[in-house]
Amino acid sequence: MDSGGREVTVRRQKIKKNRVKVRLIIFLILAAALLAAAVWAEALCPYDPYAQDMSAALQPPGPAHLLGTDRYGRDMLSRVLIGARSSIFSALLLAGITGMLGTAAGVACGYFGGAADMVIMRISDICLAFPSLVFAMGIAAVLNGGMKGAVIALAAVGWPKYARLARSQTLTVKNSDYIAAARLSGSSALQIIFLHILPNTGGPILVTAALDIGTMMMELAGLSFLGLGAQPPAAEWGSMMSGGRSMLQTSPWVVLSPGLAIFVSVALFNLLGDAFRDWMDPKGPGGHG
Amino acid sequence: MKKYVIKRLLLLIPIVLGITFLSFGMMRLAGSDVVLQQAEGSGAALSQEAMEARREELGLNRPFLVQYADWLKGFLTGDLGVSYVSGKDVFSELVSKLPATLLLAALSAALTVAVAVPLGILAAIRQNRVTDYLIRGCSFIGNSLPNFFTALLLMYFLSIRFSVFPVISDGVSLRSAAMPAFTLAIAMASKYVRQVRAAVLDELGRDYVEGALSRGIPFSVVLRKNVLRSCLSAILTLLALSVGSLLGGTAIVESIFMWDGVGKMAVDAISMRDYPVIQAYVVWMAVIYVIVNLAADLSYRILDPRIRMGGER
Which partner for A214 in A35, A269, B37, B240 could form a disulfide, CB atoms 3.0-4.6 Å apart? Predict the structure, then answer.
């Protein structure tokens, strides 16, 4: 390849990189808007999401109620907005907890090795032997439902993936010269983990967590749909859909509006996750495709 | 190969022990009080002494490990206790409902392969063209739809608006299996189209493909004879992994479509806090999952000589 060709390639790569960055920024802004809507949901609600008004029950979408009303006459738009809070924040919390727990376990296993490594990895093997949703349903049932129970159940199911990733990442950097240098210069294990190992292994873990948020949101909504997450009358998308199921034939908006809300948020977080992955790793699957 | 099979079969023992131990411990933590549960269920007010006596009778005062060993013995002999709610034998109930779930799972897996493999290949050979973007777009949408929403959408459009299928199943028939199977297949196919595409693209980029093409072998022949054969093990792995999400996914879908399988049984049991049934469901689904994964692992070792050689060296 002559030098002119190389220049063109470099320029193309730059354009591609910029495109990835722009995509990431756009989805970040959209996600921030969604989060802001969830945070200030109360101010945005046209009606009180819990106020029942039997005279206005099951009204189809119209100028007074943009998304219609449910069987107790509660405004669907307000309920969907308030529901964003528990649905989205629980998913973010879940991704955070699962990622941190798994990473902590994995880094400790990889760095210290020994009996603890053996035991933790065998436990993760057993957790992975269960079909994940079946396991989560079992744990959530044991914890007697509630959003907290659902988050704990899904975290218990999700951590082994992160633990394995973090462990293998730690093992690859553990024997590098710079770690040896840090150890020789008297750094403690904790210092080495936080200052050297985590910054060098965190990328793939963050990408995995970002890609998982959408799935986690769906799984949380699924547990709520089964009655193992948020309990009525709390407004949560999964449980709202479950409650409206019997009215699918007569008033489909009761089911469709929270459903669309889940779909849009999951899609947005999936797009954000993809963009984040491409930005972190331009040579990855989406980077050149 | 024989040595490997024996090794894998022996490795099943600690895994199954782990599964049973975890499930047992989990349920004991929650439903520790069978007696209180039963008393509440029957509505009778039992005295403290009567409940103590009943606990003694059921052996709930013995050490945890003794109870576990006892339960494990029951598990191995097909005795998982009786349901708190119906009083029926849990194991025979589970066995009687398992075929319906397996039928649904097999149908969805077949549908998934029938959709995901051709579309994944098509997307790969038309990379970055309209077909590819369309397929990837659909797969993205399918990936962002929770299966209960897909189920309700299908129900709304196919049964209520245009009565193509019955709203709820009228027994175990192909016609009533169609919508639940579609629901499960849509989610899985969306996921696997991407992976089939990636696997085929990866294979197409190899030197031997270029070599074969430059020798004048038609692209379709290379695709059929070399590329697809090499992707087979990847596709099999996907199928085996999908069994896990299928077994979990059937629970929600079965209960929406009133499909009388183990998933619906588990969901009903969860709402009644019928712990023996939940426990049996969790343990057996895990055991089935582990066995399916093992079978897939062994079978693609047979299909793909590269892994076989690598494993035995």
Answer: A269
Residue pair A123/A156 in contact by the 8 Å Cβ criterion:
no
Evaluate whether A179 touches A171 at the Cβ level (below 8 Å): no
Mind giving me the DSSP string for B11-47?
A: HHHHHHHHHHHHHHHHHHHHTT-HHHHHHHHHT----
d(CA A198, CA A205): 10
What does the alpha-carbon distance between residue A8 and residue A15 come to, in Å, rounded to a whole number? 10
Task: Give yes or no for a cis peptide into B166 (omega within 30° of 0).
Answer: no
Q: Are residues B298 and B216 in the same domain?
A: yes
pLDDT tens readout for residues A247-271: 888 888 889 999 999 999 999 999 9
Q: Tokens standing for A139?
A: 């744990």
* pTM: predicted TM-score of the whole model, two decimal places: 0.86
Separation in Å, CA B163 to CA A22, A111, A120, B169, B258: 45, 60, 53, 13, 17
Total domains, chain B: 2
Query: Which range of residues forms the domain containing residue B124?
Result: 98-312
CB contact under 8 A, A225 and B252: yes
Most B CBs within 10 Å, among A133, A134, A161, to test the B interface = A134
The answer as to whether B88 is a domain residue is no
CATH of the domain at A144: 1.10.3720.10
Probe site for chain A from B13, B22, B149 (most A CB atoms < 10 A): B149
Asked whether B270 and B251 are in contact (CB, 8 A), the reply is no
Residues 103-122 of chain B whose Cβ lies under 8 A from any Cβ of chain A: none
Task: State how far the alpha carbon of B189 is from the alpha carbons of B142, B161, B181, B252, in Å.
Answer: 8, 25, 12, 18
Number of domains within chain A: 1
CA distance B311 to chain A (A): 20
Burial A165-181 (b: 16+ CB within 10 A, else e): bbbebbeebbeeeebee
Do the domain assignments include residue B90?
Answer: no
Element (H, E) at B100: helix B90-125
Does some domain include residue A54? no
Residue A288 lies in a domain: no
- Write the ipTM: 0.85
Query: Which member of B140, B160, B286 has the closest CB to residue A131?
Result: B286
Per residue in B98-129, pLDDT tens? 999 989 998 998 899 899 989 999 999 888 89
Residue-wise pLDDT for A133-151, tens only, equals 889 998 988 888 788 889 9
